[in-house]
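Appendix B: complex inputs.
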Amino acid sequence: MPRVLAEVLGSPGRIAGFVTASGVVAFFYTLLLPFDYTQRFEFANWNYLSPHLLVWALALGVAMGLVLSIQVYAMRQIVSARVATGAASGAAFIMSLLPSFLCCTPMVPSLLAFVGVSGVGLYSTTGAVQHFFAVHQSEILSASLALLAIMGWWGLRKLTHSRCFTGEGCAVDTTEGTTSASGDAQADLQVPRSDPPHAERPLPKEKTPR
Amino acid sequence: MILTLHVVNSASSSASAGTTSGSTGVSLPVGAVAPNGTAITLSGATTSVASLRGRPALIWFVTTWCSSCEAGTQTMAQNIAALSADGVRVVEVENYADFGQSGPTMETFAKSLAGHAFANPDWTFGEASSALTRTYNPRAYLDIYYLINAAGRIVYVNGSPSSTMPGLLNAAKSLV
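Resulting structure:
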């Protein structure tokens, strides 16, 4: 698996992509995590960015950047890996947003009112829901980070076990020159083809009119 | 969330323009006469919205376990003198029973976050009655405030003073 990780970040371009993605996501989180204090998504939120929240922003940024890098790499390697990691890391991302966007915002009472909760029920339900996210923010962020870590590990695992990466060569349909792995994977790893590409086949001779 | 904030903020925009907005359904409308209701101050006295008439007043509903309420109280402590200079007195009240969730008492909340400003005579802390909370905060927002003029009419509605203080100060200045 370390070998795969080295491959995922194995070029200056890929490292730049990872650093950029991590930076952008971490920047986003530095504004998002103090959202509870201001109810606004603005630079003034940095006034409430404690060291604790900064660490969370960096951790989530690096984790998300790594998962995105793995996903991009996996998308180019294995189509099935793209589907699996994309959905779950998206869930982790959304889950990490919940504490900030549900605590102290009008979102919860508005949603509850929309679904028909009213009167005493609205008061108690709003309080219960928002209180839960307010007091369990760290646990929810931890779960999000754990989910990102699992997705990163899962993506790396799939890449490790992919035949393309192990050097055994990608499965090749010898009948038409198409492969079961993505074309990019072939290009990246320069796996020798067992059959010349269709485009390289010699053109049939033109029939000359008699 | 954004949509709802727009609704609340649209009321404040109307207040700045000096116009009356219609009922939004999420808060009392700007221009309406502030309904009466009672709260118990930290000293144990009963105060009412009606008793605030004759001077501009800010009635602010908070929840003691709410982050924006904590930050807003700290911001209020830094700006209470400016509001006081404009003749505004602030009544910060806990939403009835903290919406049924456990949190610090209003006294602990106020003393720890207001600091020296806790003793400002123009800043009163208390606990809103159930009726007052339901009247002014029908959607159970954790943090919402109303600026009421001397005649008892609502002139500005918003929340989270930590980020809306400039607008509140402008609205207060317009009352002078």
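The CA atoms of residues 77 and 116 of chain B lie 8 Å apart.
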